Amino acid sequence: MKKNYIVTDRLITRITGWMAGLIVLALAIWGGYTIWHYYRFEETNDAQVQEYVNPVISRAGGFIVAVKFEENQPVKRGDTLLIIDNREYVLQQEQTEAAIRKAEAQLQVLESNIHTLERTAGAASAQISGARAKVWKQQLDFDRYQQMYKEEAATRQQLENMQATLDVNNSEYKTATENFNAASSRIADVRAEKEVVQAELKRLKALLDRHKLDVSYTVITASYDGRMGRRTVEVGQMIDAGEVLAYIVNNETDKWVVANYKETQVANMAIGDTVEIVADAYPGQTFRGTVISLSPATGSSFSLLPPDNSTGNYVKIVQRIPVRIRVDGQRKEIDKLKVGMNVNVYLPKHQHHG
Question: What is the pLDDT of residues 42-68, one digit of tens each?
Fold first, then answer.
């Protein structure tokens, strides 16, 4: 029995030795790989996928009569998302159109009045010329009869008749002049009134453009290719202008990662450096990226209450610098990365910076 125990102990010792050796070897390999990885890469797991997520905002208020999308649905630029009851806006547009037609009719009437007054002024001007000629001739006759009366070649009655005729002609001349001046003044008044109507017409046309915009705002469309996010509205709901109705993820812009590197890691980083990205959701797949910008300040400096080390309670904490990395590759592949996903970013050290 003792011999059997000795054999068993030796076997256990041997197995234990092999296991310990394997553990030591595994630790050595892991340690070597870690050191090699640390030497080769600047790594951080404080990184998230970012993309433009924009709200869909209504520019008109009213009741929703149709919702044309579902959550998470892909959409194209110009696709209709929502329709708002537009009857009030259409009525306002029609009222303004009627006011424009009325103003245009007023302009035509005023233009016709101007033509009529111009003809009246032309006739009065002709009367002035005729009356002036009559006054001139009658003045010559009166002067001649006055001379003849002095020479007793004409009677006083004849001279008085000539004087009366001259007064009548002068009165007709004055009347024709006043008619011409009145017509000219009326033309100026109508033209001034025409300018007022033209200004009102211009205002109404601008108002019509605004009403047309309001009508167009009742059909809310996708501003770009993208994917719909959370939906917060339903048919029959009353909304106000400026209200957020849904969210859309923009597919027309780049997708990027914000990697918050320690300040001790960014000394040799530069725009244009290439990086490797591994998402927690796809541990077996590596994505490629390019550094496109480094933050001008630490993340804490942009916080609502930045730390003030001069207060006396100073504890040195390693700060983080946000590094923006564009995700490269085909859209189909990079769309696997969703906004907000956690990723690990590996930036190779010793990259050549020209």
Answer: 888 899 999 888 889 999 999 999 999
